[in-house]
Amino acid sequence: MAVTLKYPFVKLEAPPEYRGIPHIEPRLCIGCGACVNACPADALLKIDDHSTGTRKIVLDVGRCIRCARCDEACPTGAIRMTRNFEVATLDRSDHVEVVELRLHRCPNCGNYTDYTERALEKAFQILPEGLFDKEELRKKAILCRNCRRKLTVDDTIEASREVVG
Amino acid sequence: MKLRSLYIFHLDTGACNGCEIELFDVLTPYYDAERLGVRLAASPRHAHAMAVTGPLTRQTYYAAKEAIKAMPPKPRIIVAIGTCACSGGIFYNGYPIYRRPESPREGQEYPRRGGIFELVQDLRDEGEYVGPVVYIPGCPPRPEEILYGVALALGLVEKRAKGEHYTEEAGFELPEYPIEERIRLSLRERLKYVVGYFDREGILRDFMELAGKAESVEELHRLIEDYCLRNPDSRISLAMRVLEREFLRLKEKYGWEVGMNAKAPQGEVRGVQVAVKRDAGSR
Ligand code: SF4
Ligand code: SF4
Ligand code: SF4
């Protein structure tokens, strides 16, 4: 009886539990960087460019040890382990997957913030209904850190003036 | 030059032995790499290719250099087996790992540096010829992955891996779920302590379906009991029950009035609630 596998000449599927390389689904990724913090091998990178207003989430499967911690950490399920294992290559740049997202821009001062537009949308989705006035919150939440601080201080001064005067 | 057969010398540059075990598997009759013309050579002087495992420690650096220099001048193919050999792997920033001065441990470059690349680059700088490097990532790569990599070096298979660069053009989706997103994320986090990543999404999806269907707490409880009876896997039943308690606890905390499906408990179902509180304290 022939026991030898026919593999590379026939197609072969890995078992369902097999941890192949991870893959980022770009439609779901919000660029939050949770996977980057979780990755023990630094296979994931978060590279911000404040001059062009982009954030790159970089996955290098050539550094990935397939521990699935990114899969566990991702709040949107964008990065998932796949069963794909045929990733040998002669060119390391074949291993790199980049998701480039736009950073949110403060409408007041025009500077780029430290989070993406998508992350902001996600944050609004997580807010519980009925606890906040969403419209009011939205007005403030879209500002960058400095503008928000300034607005808060200005509002407080304004309010205290009314009380005093 | 088209190679018909490949004599491989195996070089360990500080691997954890995981990759070695897989490499030896490849030579067993089940995977039988010899049918591709691959043989292990006893000395680098007889080898076309060098199968390298490990992250290239400082201790092995000089020996590895000598071994590669001892190979015949051509073709000198390097087969980097495992994530360690490809890029340093989990040991990427360890103190005993050899890195060239221009490849810092805490860089933001990609593809990520480290592993056998550092030595190959040093040798090329010295004017030594080193042939192509086949990178086979995995920690460890399964025997099929090594076979695929070797077959790729021999030109028997097509390359499948391809780098991707996605931008905002790919589109954006923010999926909606039957329960509030805030509660879904909390449940997901709680589930991390009960089941692994593999079953988690499926269990959570089933739970959300039941929670979306249920009109009241009693009905939710009944649906979950039904589900657990139908499902013989005790891990999944346990996870479902943990989810139910956590769901009720969160609802109690955030208030039943805000965007919920299952209605607030009426009167006599407080038994569940008491159990919930006790469980929450013990974690
Ligand atoms: S954790 Fe998920 S959503 Fe966040 S950056 Fe990583 S892949 Fe994207
Ligand atoms: S599986 Fe582990 S090593 Fe690989 S990218 Fe995810 S967190 Fe990093
Ligand atoms: S790639 Fe993983 S299994 Fe292979 S030597 Fe490195 S740590 Fe060990």
Describe this structure in words.
The complex is a heterodimer of chains A (165) and B (283). Chain A has 165 residues and is α+β, with helices and mostly antiparallel strands. Helices cover 29% and strands 21% of the residues of chain A. The mean pLDDT of chain A is 91. Chain B has 283 residues and is α/β, with parallel strands linked by helices. Chain B has two domains: 6-154, Rossmann fold (3-Layer(aba) Sandwich), CATH 3.40.50.12280; 179-276, no CATH class. Chain B contains ten helices and six strands. Chain B has a five-stranded parallel sheet with strand order 2-1-3-4-5, with helices on both faces. In chain B, helix 7 (197-213) crosses helix 9 and helix 8 runs antiparallel to helix 9 (234-254). At the A-B interface, strand 5 and helix 3 of A face helix 3, strand 5, helix 5, strand 6 and helix 6 of B. The structure holds iron/sulfur cluster (3 copies).
Report a brief summary of the structure:
The complex is a heterodimer of chains A (165) and B (283). Chain A contains five helices and six strands, in the order E-H-E-E-H-E-E-E-H-H-H.
How much β-strand is present in the residues of chain A?
A: 15-25%
Number of domains of chain B: 2
Which CATH first-tier class of the largest domain in chain B would you pick? Alpha Beta
Count of all domains of chain A: 1
**Rg calculated over all Cα atoms of chain B:** 28 Å
Cα-atom radius of gyration of chain A: 23 Å
In total, how many beta strands of chain B? Answer: 6
Q: Hetero groups bound?
A: iron/sulfur cluster
CATH top level assignment of chain A = Alpha Beta
Instruction: Describe the sheet with the most strands of chain A.
Output: 4 strands, antiparallel
Give me the secondary-structure category of chain A.
alpha+beta
Q: State the end-to-end distance of chain B.
A: 64 Å
Unreliable residue stretches of chain A: none
Indicate the CATH topology of the largest domain in chain B: Rossmann fold
Helix percentage range of chain A:
25-40%
- β content of chain B, as a range? 5-15%
Strand order in the sheet with the most strands of chain B: 2-1-3-4-5
**Total of DSSP H or I helical runs spanning 4+ residues of chain B:** 10
Largest interface: A-B, 64 and 69 residues
**Element order, helices and strands of chain B?**
EHEEHEHHEHEHHHHH
- Helix/strand structural class of chain B: alpha/beta
